[in-house]
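Hello Y.,

Per our agreement to keep a running log of every chain we model this quarter, I'm adding this entry. I've kept the format consistent with earlier entries: sequence first, then predicted structure.
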Amino acid sequence: MSYTYFSNSDLGSTHRIGFTLNLYSPGKKAFRPQDNRPGSIGKKVGKITVRKPRNLRVFFSRDRIVIQWSKVENAHYNVYARYSEKSEWKRITRAPVRQNSIDYKIPTVPGRYYFRVTALVNRVESNFSDEAYIDVQ
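Predicted structure for the entry above:
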């Protein structure tokens, strides 16, 4: 969406003043964690360091799988999962979530499910948290 302001005051025969303000929606961008090293603390972009979430836990609660982690100040979070050690990480949150836990219905396909979380502060995504997994029977 663009708005244009044009001043009607005449500053002479060749001079006019005005400005245009463009308001663009950010659109969908793929945020991908860059560093998967276990000892990595966070991702630094300029002067901003976004710490990765810590203390990731996955457990059963009734008919749900609960994924929980320690908070990162002023962060939203993306949760990633994969079905096997060889498969690719897929983001399972449609949009970044504000809370530091999330729950899902227990999958019907038995197997080991792996999870990781990233923190998102000012559109900068941290490295992956350490991995946690749960075995579904």
